[in-house]
Amino acid sequence: MEYKEKAAQQRELLKLVREVEIFEEVFHSNAIENSTLTLSETEKILLDMEIDKIRSIREVYEAKNLHRIYNYIENKDPEITLENILLCHKFLLDNINEDIAGRIRVGNENVRVGKHIAPIPDEMAPKLDTLLKRRIKSFKDVIAFHIDFERLHPFIDGNGRIGRVLINWQLKHIGSAPIIIRSETKVNKYYPFLSNVDYAGLTKTCELLWSESMNKRLAYVDGLDIITLAQYSKDHTDDSLASLINRANRQTIPAFRMRGVWNIGVKP
Asked: pTM for this structure?
C-alpha cells in the first residue's frame, strides 16, 4: 500500500506524531538562536508544568510563542502571504518586544549577519514581495527560498525562527513531510550553507532530515515496533552501535531520531 494511502487512513495517528514532534522542533529552533532551555524544560513549559528553575522569562515566552505559531499553521493551514508571515512574527515576539513585532525593518534599521550586510530597509518591501511571488513546487524550491529569506533578513529579530517556520509551512503546502533542523549541527551543517549561499549543500543536508521524517512516519503507519538503535544492535544485527549510527546519519538504514535518540522500526 502506498504511503499516501496509508497516511490517509492513519491521519489522526500522524496528527499525534506531529503534535509531539513540534515540541522538539520548538526546542531546536530556539536552541539554534542560543536559548539555554533543555528539551525537557521546553516540553514542561509547553505542557504548563513546573520546571525547577526559570533562568529567563524571555526564553519561556520564546518557547510558548513559537509553539503557538506551529499550532496555528497546523490547525488553520493559512496561505503563505506577507500578512500571515507578519502575524506569525507578531506571535513570535509577543511579550518580548512589541515595538518590532509584526513588521519588517524600516528607517535606519540595518542589520549585519556575520560578514553579510542585509539589504537596506527601503529595499525590503519590494524584495520580500518578489521573494513571496516565487512558485514553490519542490523540496529544492523550499530550501532555496529559506536561504534567500535569511539573506534578506526582513526583521530586526526573529528571522531564523520565522525562516524555519516557513520551511515546514511550505513543505506542508506541497504535501511533504516536515523536517527538524537540529541545533547541534548548526555550526557545521546549517550556518555555513547560509553564509556561503550554498543551495546544493543545504538541500542535501535537509533531504537527509526529510528521509528521517519519512522513516518515522512509515514506522508508525506500518504499525512497527519502535526501538532504539542501541537495542537493535543487541537483538537484531551483528553491527556495532557506532556503525549503525554512522549509517543512520547517512540515512542508509530507515532510522530516525526522537528526543535526540536514534530509533528504528522493526516488525512485531
From this structure: 0.96
The grid coordinates of residue 246 equal 554512522
Measured CA to CA in angstroms, residue 260 lies from 15, 185, 249 at distances of 20, 12, 12
Condensed to tens digits (0 to 9), the pLDDT of residues 162-211 reads 999 999 999 999 999 999 999 999 999 999 999 999 999 999 999 999 99
Dihedral sign for Cα atoms in the order 81, 203, 206, 220: positive
Let me know how long the chain is: 268
DSSP conformation letters of 209-236: HHHHHHHHHHHHHTTPEEEEHHHHHHHT
Residue 258 dihedral angles phi and psi, to the nearest 5°: -135, 125
Task: Give CA–CA dist 87/29, Å, rounded.
Answer: 18
Helix (H) or strand (E) holding 255: strand 255-258
Report the C-alpha gap between 61 and 1 in whole angstroms.
Answer: 43
Q: Which residues pair with 228 in a beta bridge?
A: 263
Closest to 217 in 3D by CA, of 165, 263, 171 = 263
What does the alpha-carbon distance between residue 151 and residue 251 come to, in Å, rounded to a whole number? 29
